[in-house]
Structure formats: C-alpha cells, structure tokens
Amino acid sequence: MLQQTQASRVLPIYGRFLSRFPTPARCASSTVADVVDAWSGLGYNRRALHLHRAATAIVEHHGGVVPADLDQLRTLPGVGQYTARAVMAFAFEADVAVVDTNVARTLARVSGVALTTRAVQASADAVAPKGLGWSWNQAMLDLGASCCRARQPRCDACPLAACCRWRAGGRADPDPARRSALVSGGQSSFAGSDRQGRGRLIAALRAGSVAVADAARASGWPDDPGRAEQVVAALEREGLLVRGDGELRLPGQRYESAHAVHEHVGGRRDDDAPLPADAWPHDRQRRLDLTGEEVAV
Ligand code: SF4
What we know:
This protein is mainly α. It has 3 domains: 7-79, Hypothetical protein, domain 2 (Endonuclease III, domain 1), CATH 1.10.340; 101-179, Endonuclease Iii, domain 2, CATH 1.10.1670; 194-288, Orthogonal Bundle (Arc Repressor Mutant, subunit A), CATH 1.10.10. Helix content is 46%, strand content 6%. It is built from 14 helices and 6 strands. It has a 3-stranded antiparallel β-sheet with strand order 1-3-2. A 3-stranded antiparallel β-sheet has the order 4-5-6, with no helix packed on it. Strand 4 and strand 5 (261-265) form a beta hairpin. The longest helix has 17 residues, at 46-62. It is globular. Bound molecules: iron/sulfur cluster (SF4). The site of iron/sulfur cluster has 14 residues, from helix 7 and helix 10.
C-alpha cells in the first residue's frame, strides 16, 4: 500500500483492509473484485491484484504463512527487491537494508556520485548496523523523506551532514541523485492521463458491471471511445477486469439476476444462459457517475 502512496492516505484503509482480510488465506479465498473493492481510495489497483495473487501463492506454496526468507518472498507476484526487504526488516526484524527512492537519493548524495542499482544496495547494506535492522530502516526512510528531500534538502538539520560529499562540494550541479538508480523522477501529471481514466473505470466497476458501450463515458472520455478501449484492453490483459455478454466486470464480481446468482471467473459465467434484461439490480446511470475516486490505477 505504501508503494507510491502517502502513509496518511494509507492508514485508515489499512485498518479496514486487515479487518476484512486478516490472513493470506482469507484474502486468497476472496475474489479479485473483493480485494479491489477494499483497495478503494489507494489507487494503483494493480497492487491489489498482485496482493491477491501473492496471498494465493502463500496459501498454495507456503502453508498460508508469509515466508521469512528474502529469496522466497521474491518469488511472490508483485514482490520485488524493495518490498521483500521491507517485509524482512519490518515484519521479521531482519538485518537487511531497505532502499526506496528516499534512501537511494540520500546515499547518492552522501557518496557524491550517481550510483548503480547494485552500488546503492551495496552501500545501504554496508552501513546497516547488526541487530538494528527495524529501527535503522525506519530512520533511513524518514531521513530521506523529511531531511534529504528531493528539492531543498535540509542539510543544516541532517545528522549525515559531516560525512556528506555532495554537501562538502557545495551541492554543485548536477545533483548525483538525479542520475542515480532507484531514485524516482516523480509522478507524471495525473489529470488527463490514462491513469485517471483507469481510476474512473475501476471506480464505476466497483459498484457493478459497466456495459462495454458505456466504457468511454465511465472512463471520463465520452468522445474518445478508442482511448477508452485501449484502457479496457490493458486492464483486461493485466487481469483487473473481464468482459462478457457486452459487459465489463471486476474478476469474480458477483451479480444477481432475477433467477440466480452468477459468478464471473476468468471472463466466463458458471451458467452461460443469457441474462434477462432486468438482471441488473443497480442504477446504471448512477454508477457511471461514480467518478469521485480520482486516483490512479
Ligand atoms: S547533508 Fe544534505 S544532501 Fe547530504 S544527506 Fe544530509 S540532507 Fe542530504
């Protein structure tokens, strides 16, 4: 949740999410639609999909217990070096160094040169003290976020000031962090982006199915159905939606017809009988106006 999303935004959703999915098994036995629904407000819904797939893998291959092993964590869907190390450090208090964009920026500046991925990780590992992995990583993440900021670093308040080579050189251009690996260049503008259209469409789908013909309107691009179709196709490829019978749905999303409850799994209903025209219990227009969640996916 904390990948590319601020902690203040994550906090209230995190608690609700854990109440709903307290264990990997509960998450794995839920549908993608349920998990994406609980993810509402966080954006970047692909992370919800990855979390669901990771929970499934944990149940299938690790007895439902999150493995306390860096290499095994790396085999889980959506888990890269940063996430695996963060889980090891903060869940298992292991002595591994966590490198996010803030830490990478700090280490490049202290070194005075742009660092490769391997060099920045080696540099982080070299300074992490034994037995203090949990608190050390908290401190490093906070230092980069609050002190060694991308713009206007607060060198006067920095505990690393005495050993910082970039500062010693008068913070000369170019900033070594700018060309360093693992340092994010910042997010592109959200307004008008595909991410915004994806967010709107997923928000509409959380409330129920959307007719394929209404996808452009639900995405916020009523005059650009071609762009909406590209977004639909991308979400479908990624596994975030399924289409069938002229409708788009979140995978596993349940809906009620006048006679039965069907479930979409991998784009197919259990029962392939055509849906009655009055099968949809929702007000479709209201759902298409659900554009309140202006967050990316
Ligand atoms: S002294 Fe300044 S540039 Fe160097 S690590 Fe601290 S805040 Fe960053």
